[in-house]
Amino acid sequence: MSETTHLYNPSDIEPKWQRYWEEGQTFRATEDPDRPKYYAMPMFPYPSGSGLHVGHPESYTAVDLVARYKRMRGFSVLHPMGFDAFGLPAERAAQRDGIHPGVITDQRIEYFTTQMKAIGFSYDWSREVVSSHADYYRWTQWIFLKLYEKGLAYLEDVPVWWCAAQGTVLANEEVVDNRYVETGDPVERRNMRQWMLRITDYAQELLDDLDSEGLQWPEGVLEMQRQWIGRSEGAEVTFRVAGQDDDEDDRSFLVYTTRPDTLFGATYCVLAPEHELVAEITTQAQRETVEAYVAQATSKSELDRQMGGERNKTGVFTGAYAINPVNDERVPIWVADYVLATYGTGAIMAVPAHDERDHAFARTFGLPIVPTYTVPDGHDIQAEVYVSTSETVVNSGQFDGMTTAEMMPAIIDWLEEHGHGERRVNFKLRDWLFSRQRYWGEPFPILHITDEDGTPTGEIVPVPYEDLPVELPHVDEYKPTTTGEPPLARATEWLHTTAPDGRPALRETNTMPQWAGSCWYYLRYTDPDNTTAPWSQDRVNYWGAVDLYIGGVEHAVLHLLYARFWHKVLHDLDLVPTREPFMRLANQGDILANSYRESGGKYHHPDDVEERPGSPVTMTSAHDQSEVTTTFYVRGTDTPVEQKAGRMGKSLNNGVDPMDVIARYGADSLRLYEMFMGPLEQTKVWNTSGVEGVHRFLSRVWRLFIDTDTGALREMAAETSREQLRALHTAIRETTTGIEDLKVNTPIAKMMELVNTCSGETMARPEMEQFLLILSPYAPHLAEELWSRMGHDTTLAYEAWPEWDEAALAVDSITIAIQVQGKLRGTVEVPSEASKDDILAAAKDEVADHLDGKEIRKEIVVPGRLVNFVVG
Ligand code: ANZ
Q1: What does the angle CA 98 – CA 99 – CA 101 come to, to the nearest 5 degrees?
Q2: Ligand 1 proximity of 661 Cβ (cutoff 6 Å)
Q3: Fold classification of 231-426 (topology level)
Q4: Helix (H, G, I), strand (E, B), or coil: what is residue 706?
């Protein structure tokens, strides 16, 4: 037999072990009451058309390490995978290709599954969930009905972005400059009847529980959630509208302010353009200007309005005045779009001296600026805002002289006593717009009662629980109807139905947004085949909250907030045992890849590019038209291309398919490289030649165990040397703490050091086995193979995780005498194998007094015994 056949060859090993795990159901999770549980999962993917790229397995591998480690620690581990399968891209593909999105989605899931299995993740595949399958979304509908029964789901006319070309409502983030960012289609503001979820009922709880004991989330994510919930404390203050021509006027409006302490400095008020008083109070002279302003302001998105920047504040005077309740002064009422209709009361008192936006506005329109705090010497309040509150209250009548801490309660008490206002807490969080005019989503289990000619009466009836699921009907086209109804209205037979009491009814034609399915999938994993309930109490009580959840930071707000909201509702219904769904959260950093673009703008795949270091050339960058020098060319041509790292994907044509990496280096190398690239949470640039490095390491591991001439297991040493033992136990310690702390890259370096220390010499059998066990979460195929060649006939997945021995880590030390000019001046303890440089550094430190100010002429080191410094 030729020598090479016995080298490390992952393709001989990996499929075999994947089959073994699958056939033996090695990773099947069991609700074992005698063992502690551990529940670990990555965020499930959307099965896109391009399959997994090498960015996905990063978080998957990290969770897999922990899952494998915890099994070896005696935990009963639940480590599941599923698919977030509803969504717009599949619907688009369906429109384009005329294939049902369900068919397209299931094909894509199949490819994703093949890829995942080829990487050797230890999922319990029997628990797979697919959010677009009726046996899953039946329960999404079930939960919706629970929300509806609790009064947490309601229909409302809301201004939405309507994109006629796409026939759908878009989210605020999808609209820029009145166009849909993806397609450039124009969008318009429209009031439409939409399903809303009353997440605001849970605002305080969603905020408070971020501080729950045991919740281990990145501080950045906690802060993003807090900001999004946006709790603020302040007061609502009533401003009366001043009578025109000195007549009495009994109209008034409320403003919301977080700074009632500055009330004496309120020199004008602003109403949001949508405020109901605007039309009423605007004077004849101002009417035309105000109407024109209101019309253009309401067509902008909230984001655009807030992003307007301090410099280009816009607004118009209504001609009317209000009375400031604290000093009875008449202040002008303006309309401006920096005040949002949907926050607070939709009206503000403006304090230009102490608020940046108000200051900019007052400067633009020449409104008075009156400070209510002393400002530092030399600070010109007319030119510059003063937002600090540390000074003393002024211009505020009886309150003058107070500090902010005194003023705040004093003024609120005064307002409450005089009936001019009251304390008030506000949240930025809005109710959740929960319907979409799309096909590929969960149908609502809702019926609209109609009269005999089919006109809805406005009465709504939920579909009875026993009639779930309301299955997605087949439609001839995945487009809105010609009258602008959502695509489901095309399914006329499905659409017309009867209510449980026999009255004619129409089905709801909106579908749920893509977020719905991901709000509760972690609960379904506990009991995925249940046909009588979304999950059984026993199962969900056993698994409890998810112990480890890893996914992209792009989900720091919405997905996590929505899932927490549903979880809390379910908890209030006694359906789940915990108040929070995810105890420990971690985010993986993006994996970027170099992209290669020619001057004309076209991207070439990295495989089609070659570097010619000797032939640099200047080209025009398609990114910013600058002149750049490059040494990269489209393979076999003279077309230069510019290299730039970016997110992997179709648009940059730089995706790396894990299957290609596996074909070249094997899954274990892929896994190891994913972890070796750097700290989990950091952004990293993929570099295929880096995979080669870890592959070489695994080949060395192979050669440590296997005689590559014969293919037989090598003879193990009778004894493990002191150095080997120390390197091994260092690796055990680092791997243990590294996996526990999700510092998944550092253990690899220690394992590499161990193999270096061995330099081809085996350790004794027990130590060789310990090494395999700690390697196994990273390179499970190789570890299983070598484990079985060591003579074991069962998987190592449930072997006890090795403990490190402090004694083995201890370093022998020796005492070195230190002489200066041959005279003994001290001693130092150093590790027995300390380098000459280390010994010298320690020695100099010890006798620093004797060397002070003197030039060292000579350093004599007698290894293991003494150091002598010759000075002069
Ligand atoms: C007077 C004042 C003086 C304010 C001052 C701030 C500083 P947060 O903390 O975000 O809740 N405001 C209230 N409703 C608004 C709306 N619908 N659109 C735009 N701005 C609105 O902010 C509350 C503050 O934002 C309120 O306190 C109000 O301005 C403004 F030195 O009132 B303040």
Answers
A1: 120
A2: no
A3: Isoleucyl-tRNA Synthetase; domain 2 (3.90.740)
A4: strand
Indicate the domain borders of the chain: 32-133+522-588, 157-192, 231-426, 591-647, 691-809, 813-871
25-82 pLDDT per residue, tens:
999 999 999 999 999 999 999 999 888 988 899 999 999 999 999 999 999 999 999 9
> How many degrees, rounded to 5, is the angle at CA 58 between CA 54 and CA 61?
120
CA of 366 to the centre of ligand 1 (A): 20
Residue 426 Cβ inside 6 Å of ligand 1? The answer reads yes
CB 870 less than 6 A from any atom of ligand 1: no
Other beta carbons within 10 angstroms of residue 807's beta carbon come to 8
- What are the backbone dihedrals phi and psi of residue 430, each rounded to the nearest 5 degrees, phi first? -110, 160
* Domain boundaries 32-133+522-588, CATH class: alpha beta
Give the fold, CATH level 3, of 691-809.
Isoleucyl-tRNA Synthetase; Domain 1 (1.10.730)
* Predicted pLDDT of residue 604: 95
SS3 state at 770: helix
- Residues 209-229, buried b or exposed e (16+ Cβ, 10 A)? bbeeeebebeeebeebbeebb
Instruction: Give the position, in ligand 1's atom list, of the atom nearest the Cα of 343.
Output: 17
Please give the distance, rounded to the nearest whole angstrom, from the Cα atom of residue 394 to the centre of ligand 1. 21
Q: By alpha-carbon position, which residue is closest to atom 26 of ligand 1?
A: 257
Output the CA 350–ligand 1 centroid distance in Å.
Answer: 8
* Ligand 1 neighbour 256 (Cβ under 6 A): yes
- The pTM score is 0.87
Please tell me the CATH code under which domain 813-871 is placed: 3.10.20.590
